Automatic annotation (TrEMBL):
Annotated spans, Disordered: 314-350, 412-455
Compositionally biased spans, kind Low complexity: 419-433
Keyword terms of this UniProt record: Coiled coil
Coiled-coil regions listed in the entry: 201-265
Compositional bias segments (type: Acidic residues): 318-338
Superkingdom of this protein's organism: Eukaryota
Source organism (scientific name): Pelagomonas calceolata
CDD domains: DD_DYDC-like
Pfam families attached to this UniProt entry: Dpy-30
Protein name: RIIa domain-containing protein
InterPro entries, alphabetized: Dpy-30_motif, DYDC-like_DD
Length: 614
């Protein structure tokens, strides 16, 4: 029974097919036919099994290959999307277009650059100069990067080369002159044919116009005057003239295209490198490290733009535009035309722009791989974006500051009158106080030095009263983004020394005064000079002078020396306000000198008395 089942399962179907075939073919040797059929059937079955296995293996290989390709594509997409702006970065782009303070966005901007390039850090610096030596001071960096505050020193000749490779961005390319000369020659070569091709076009156009006029003239003839043959000849002549014009225009277009391409090629000649790149910083001897060296790439791109935010940034008056003709009066019964909107206010003077150079840097130290070309191009794109943003922001700041100065000039006379009134009132109050003190002294009169001290304090009170009338002017000065002259800044810094603001805290990386820092210090100090937050500087200075409560961070002797050395700037629009601030600081210094001298005299007298007792 088991044998039968085995035969039916393994041979039965094939045997049935063999018997059926034998019935159809009617072979002479039935046994041989069946045997041959079964052998062929087995061979065919084996081939089909082998083919099925082969196809299954191939399908498995294809599946593995597809999975690997999908993994590679997913990784590529992940890398691509990793460099795409996030929603926050897209909002940052909008903010960058609208802001007038790009520096305040540096932390977010550098983080975006770092993330999109896949680098370890991103930072930005500004190019300056100190005693003829070029410097780059780094002023903003991505999170975790400590480059802000570091300074890179440029070269001053072959004997003292620049630190690092970043200054290469500001060195003219060796190939520039040669490439520019070749491009200029190509432009000159293309200019001749373009110019020569203009005359044939003009001549051909004149011929077309003449031929068209002849055709129109023939078409206008009617009746017996009609001239079909003449019209046909005129139309044929017109076609010929149009063909000549088309050929001449084609020649001109080709010549102008060649000239345009040559001019574009000339404009594309780079005077300076588009970027500085080092594949592996540990293998570049010129690299300047500010920390522990690690393998990785470095890339920097120049950020260049024009700005009028400098001491000479306000130029000549804007030329007056010719007056527009008055509009015609509306016809009777017609609705009057709408009045045009008044033009937006604009500065009365023109800006004087100067070039500004910054640098955007990234490094991939610790990643031990080259920064890809597309990431280097991304650094260049960000540098261009930063330059455009700085140019927009500085233009906005300049316009606002220029109009602020115009308003200050208009208010100057009123402030002078208010100051005169305050000074007179302070003098009256001082006289009344002196009279009251005299009555209170009695027969013995005023104690030694009392009147001198009272007079010094009255001088401070008078200076404070006058200074209060210039509080708004000083507040405007603190908001002014156009740097004053060096003399004006020196005068301001000398006065701020009395408030505990050191000159070093208002200096840039070059050592020169940084107007943004000085203006911020002035804005911070103003509430202590007048208003609700006003400090009692008389008591503070007196306590410092007699040693009972020394003022932290205040060196009156240094303030006096700085005030004497500060030349001032009488031509500056806020010269009056700075002069009142200086007068206030001078009055405090005079009080300090007096109190210190009186304290010293008292100490000496006390010491002498003790010596006599002994």
């Amino acid at each position: 029974m088991a044998e039968t089942a085995y035969l039916q399962e393994n041979v039965g179907e094939a045997l049935k097919m063999a018997l059926a075939a034998m019935v159809v073919d009617q072979p002479d040797d039935a046994v041989e036919f069946i045997g041959t059929y079964l052998v062929n059937h087995a061979t065919k079955h084996e081939r089909e099994e082998a083919r099925a296995k082969k196809y299954a293996s191939l399908a498995e290989s294809i599946a593995v290959s597809d999975a690997a390709a999908a993994e590679v594509a997913a990784a590529a997409e992940a890398r691509r999307t990793a460099s795409d702006p996030t929603e926050a970065e897209a909002e940052l782009d909008k903010e960058l277009e609208e802001t007038d303070d790009v520096e305040s966005l540096y932390p977010q901007l550098m983080d975006a650059v770092r993330r999109q390039t896949g680098c370890t850090a991103a930072y930005v610096g500004v190019k300056g100069e100190k005693e003829g030596v070029p410097l780059i001071g780094f002023c903003g960096a991505s999170e975790g990067c400590d480059m802000a505050g570091n300074v890179l020193k440029g070269g001053i000749g072959e004997d003292e080369p620049a630190e690092g490779v970043t200054f290469d961005l500001f060195q003219q390319r060796e190939e520039y002159e040669e490439e520019l000369a070749a491009a200029t020659a190509a432009v000159e070569e293309a200019t001749g044919p373009a110019t020569e091709a203009e005359a044939p076009v003009a001549e051909a156009q004149a011929a077309v116009d003449g031929a068209q006029a002849a055709v129109d003239e023939k078409k206008a003839l009617e009746g017996d005057d009609a001239d079909p043959e003449g019209l046909a000849e005129a139309e044929k002549a017109l076609e010929g003239a149009q063909a000549t014009l088309a050929e001449a225009q084609k020649t001109l277009d080709e010549a102008q295209k060649t000239l345009t391409e040559a001019e574009a090629a000339k404009d594309a000649v780079l005077q300076y490198p588009s970027r500085a790149f080092v594949a592996n910083v540990v293998r570049e001897d010129r690299i300047k490290f500010f920390g522990i060296p690690r393998c990785g790439s470095y890339c920097a791109a120049a950020v260049k733009y024009d700005s009028a935010l400098h001491a000479e940034g306000i130029g000549e008056p804007v030329p007056e535009e010719p007056a527009e003709e008055a509009p015609e009066a509306p016809e009777e019964g017609a609705e009057p035309a709408e009045e045009p909107a008044p033009p937006a206010r604009a500065p009365k003077n023109q800006p004087v722009i100067v070039p500004v150079e910054r640098v955007l840097c990234v490094h991939a130290m610790g990643q031990a791989k080259d920064l890809a070309e597309d990431k280097q191009l991304l650094v260049e794109a960000w540098a261009k974006k930063l330059g455009e943003a700085h140019a927009r922001a500085d233009a906005k700041r300049w316009a606002a500051s220029a109009m602020l100065r115009e308003d200050a000039a208009e208010a100057a006379e009123a402030r002078r009158e208010a100051a005169s009134t305050a000074e007179a009132e302070a003098a009256t109050a001082a006289e009344a106080a002196a009279a009251e003190r005299t009555e209170g002294y009695g027969e013995d009169g005023a104690p030694d030095g009392a009147e001198d001290r009272a007079a010094a304090e009255a001088a401070v009170a008078s200076a404070e009263a006058v200074l209060a009338t210039y509080a708004d002017a000083l507040s405007e000065l603190a908001r002014d983004k156009i740097p004053p002259s060096e003399a004006a800044v020196a005068s301001l810094q000398a006065s701020l020394l009395v408030c505990g603001v050191s000159s070093e805290s208002c200096a840039s990386f070059t050592g020169a005064p940084d107007w943004a820092k000085a203006a911020a210090a002035l804005a911070e100090a103003l509430p202590t000079l007048s208003g609700e937050g006003k400090k009692d500087f008389v008591s503070l200075i007196a306590a410092d002078a007699d040693g009972s409560a020394p003022l932290e961070g205040v060196d009156v002797e240094a303030a006096k020396a700085a005030a004497e050395a500060a030349p001032g700037d009488d031509g500056f629009y806020a010269a009056d306000a700075l002069a009142k601030l200086s007068a206030w600081a001078a009055a405090l210094a005079a009080l300090w000198d007096l109190v210190k001298a009186q304290k010293q005299a008292a100490d000496e007298a006390e010491a002498a008395a003790e010596a006599e007792d002994d």
